[in-house]
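Researcher: We're reviewing a set of sequences before deciding which ones to prioritize for further study. For each one, I'd like a predicted 3D structure that I can look through quickly. This is Citrate synthase. If possible, include the structure in token form so it fits the rest of the review sheet.
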Amino acid sequence: MAAEHVKIIFEGKTYEFPLIVGTEGEKAVDISKLRQRTGLITLDPGFVNTGSCKSDITFMNGEKGILRYRGIPIEELAEHSSFRETAFLLIRGILPTQKQINRFSVLLNDHSLVHEDMRDFYGNFPRASHPMGILSSMVSALRSFYPYLEDVEEEIDITVTRLLSKVRTMAAMSYKMSRGHRVVYPRPDLSYCANFLNMMFDSPVKPYEIDEEIVRALDVFWILHADHEQNCSTSAVRIVGSAMVNLYSTISAGIAALWGPLHGGANQAVIGMLSEILKEGTTVKQIVERAKDKNNPFRMFGFGHRVYKTYDPRAKIMKKMCDIVLSRLKLSDPLLDIAKELEEVALKDDYFIEHNLYPNVDFYSGIVLRAIGIPTKMFTVMFAIGRLPGWIAQWKESIDDPSSKISRPRQIYIGPRQTKYVPIEERE
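Model: Here's the predicted structure for Citrate synthase, in token form for your review sheet.
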């Protein structure tokens, strides 16, 4: 059977371009030779209709609410897997054997410490610095402390585990040092997630007690955020990486992109919105009505999604973890009370249902992070730690692809035509 093509007619000539079909049936027109053959380019603001690559890492279908890593449904990974195993799956492409996961765990432990000289950097950031800015800078600085090795395979293996382990340690360090507290070092006897919580909250005055339910909630949070196809920060990683930049700087660019309030800052915005509702003394029903009013600039964070046109599959899982955490901790928090009431009202409102404005993963994850004691300014850092395996997998896939080229989008110029230079004494 002959390959399918799409025809484009321009200035009386017909051009055929290949139709590419993915394993899940999604279709794309291969326009890689469009300009070469026709002199045309496409204009697609935000690249919402443009496929930048072929990838076998993550599949998502917004209309059906599907998300899979390497073909495995996110629901199964959240129920059975760990963040450590999911990271291996994304980066290596397969679920690890017991031997492989044991070795991976050893490597994570071996590379969990941060060079002591890096601690001086933290002390020189202004106290008001945002943790994401600090993290982006510190990850970029890792290149100076941990240069690449000569053996390519060993280089990638160690560099990847360094990032996965040290970013977690650096995030906890930044929190401790911002409070003027003693830094807690990672422990080899604790799991990846338990280690992070211990480094965040342990102190000589009050030793941190490991609660497996809370550890599991963090595990699931990071699994759900591990990858999400070609979003803003992942695209930034691929674009920067296409220049053959070292992995540390590439990931630093991803962190900077994730920092944006329209991307990774959404879970922080949810808590900010709930705080404003509490401060104003507005009822939840009034807030819902404001959100439905097209003439009102108010925006309700944590509902709806750019891609998902039905219930975000990650939100269903996070809601379950949210219920478990709140029940486990028996917290009395007015913000959490408002969140639960807002969820209940919105899920029953016809306007929200008709417009597919379901609570998304940011709504529930913000509540969970607050409940387990993560400061609001650290929320996006938590997102970054979770997204790290996906960024690494996407970077690795890109540099391993022999057909990859340096990213270089085109543009449609709308400025003035050729204009004569006017000497300064003649300008009005």
